[in-house]
Amino acid sequence: MVAEERWEDAMKVRAVAGAIALLLGLFASAPPITAAPVDDGYALWLRYVSAGNAAVETRGDSPTLAVARDELRRGLPGTAGPVVLARASDAALAPLRLRTTSLGDEGYIVRRATIGGRMVTLVTGNSDRGILYGAFALLRHLGTGGSIERVDLASAPAVRLRLLNHWDNLDGQVERGYAGRSLWDWWNLPDVKDPRYVDYARANASIGINGTVLNNVNARAESLTPFYIAKAAALADVFRPYGIKVYLSARFSAPVELGGLKSADPRDPEAAAWWKAKADEIYRAIPDFGGFLVKANSEGQPGPRDYGATHVDGANMLAGAVKPHGGVVMWRAFVYADTDPEDRAKQAYIEFKPLDGKFADNVIVQVKNGAIDFQPREPFHPLFGAMPATPLMMEFQITKEYLGFASHLVYLGPLFEEVLDARTGRRVGETVSSVITGEGARPRLTGMAGVANIGDARDWTGSTFNQANWYVFGRMAWDPGLGAEAIAREWAAQTFGNDPALIDRVTRMMIASREAVVDYTGALGLAHLFATGHHYGPGPWIADLKRPEWNPVYYHRADRNGIGFDRTRSGSNAISQYAPSIARIYADPGKTPLEELLWFHHLPWTYRVSTGRTLWAELVWRYDRGVATVGDLRRQWSTLKPKVDAGRWEKQAALLRVQEREAIWWRDASIAYWMSLNQLPLPDGVRPPEHDLEWYKAQSFPFAPGNPH
Ligand code: GCV
Q1: pTM, whole model, 2 decimals?
Q2: Cβ atoms within 10 Å, residue 229
Q3: What are the pocket residues of ligand 1 if the criterion is a CB atom closer than 6 Å to any ligand atom?
């Protein structure tokens, strides 16, 4: 039983109790018989307000149709009138002459229609999965204030692979996970199938997510043993009716570690045969297994380069193993090497660009949104648009490794939108979004992955607002053009209720929150200023780590005179990896957007930026703006106390207190450090840091969550 049902039951008990009290004339003085249950956020955005026994009919029979029907019965008001779920190929729909070709195999139509002489609400698609997505679209329509009498929806997903990437380890720890431990109870699987897996699948299906990579990209070979394949198969069985395929991260050296081979060289027929046999074995257990995700030759992971082979050799060899079964290989482009003195931001492009057009047709290259690593802001990755003959898949990070973990309220919609809308300059009108949706290209694999922020925390993601990041990822993967604000509004309506004033306020808070985290962690294109390992809190002074590009000083390059990473021709020339029209903008500090200025330029502290302030004054101004915005978030949230249940309101209020305190910490620590370098006074009227630099440097957080071990 899920929370909303418990909540509904409890409310029914309360209603009956209230009626009895009223009858006895005791209403005003009687104490409540049951206390209102605390809303723990478990129900996510699937909190249907007027559940009843709506007449929902399915024409045809399948597990997917059954779950679509059950969801509608759970969520539609009893007055909804007949709702019919039918495949587009159903003869009864022929007179309607529906245009279903463009729906593909996952799109849906939801509209009023006369079927068999009866006016009904029709939910249809070319497949049962399409119908399932249509059912959720109908519930969303109602949950955001739409009426069933005028429903008229049609939609198809923009990309084929809409995947969560779980960085979950087999021991239950989640790398960069801040919402408890892994949902997967590997120990008790396959026998114990936690009912929560069904709710996970429902939530994902409701936003169009159709695949999940179960294990960390820093993979253990053991996840490919029969013992773990059986466990993955059990999860696949639960997820299948919801249109969700299971994928696994594959450790490239598994043929050596599990198979006892001498080499995992992709050109070695023995290694290829091992993978083929392994794929066959997996498909026997999971007939619709999606395929492999691979992190190769990156941060110590094994890969084809260990043998002098290329990423193409590695990816194509694995692709050959899954191809007969219809599987895919998602090969990550997140590579950089400590032996390479080249600017880290350039390394993936240097390695992958020459491989364009060489990958097998069931390989898709998975590229992070920016060239470094999921920073609060990064310019779009230069590979987007630069590999026209290769399918590229977006990788966003939903879990907020560098954005205050699960503690800070940061809505990622504006970040996703900014990247997707970026023009590549390579072809007329081309954007990052059109690259990943494959617009204008021959039909090919397309996809978007999000590193999951889900754990076994009761509210799944560590806070109510983090749920919005899961939600916006799914919605944007379905339709990158929806817009961050529109998605925030629909999430707020379904999560907190359809009160326009509340939705306005929550949406404003969400939209403001992204720029706030950029401001208080380091604006103007600064990046990677985080404390070591866990990446929580400021560490711009760190300079003693083994690899140069692990040190914040590598990224900001600040000294007495200036700050920023020169990526123009006088520096690393990373700008040359962008299309000439974009590179020309980035070459000129006067034209580079302020938001990206120090990503591309090393400038004197006294440099005057477009606002009229000096660089130093602008940076300080933005730290203060970030702190002020968080203060404002707190104030806005406090006005919503009467409109939000106590359970969720109190937790968020406490987290906002943490965020305000930590925004101040970030600001003060950073300013103290920059002042130790530039020796400049603070602009007039600006509050000095509370402590001296040594105090900030002395802070340590040995047990911060999510840190790999
Ligand atoms: C899974 C960053 C993170 C690592 C992560 C890596 C990756 O470096 O800090 O935890 O490893 O990205 O995306 O592979």
Answers
A1: 0.94
A2: 21
A3: 167, 175-176, 217-218, 295, 299, 334, 373, 401, 708
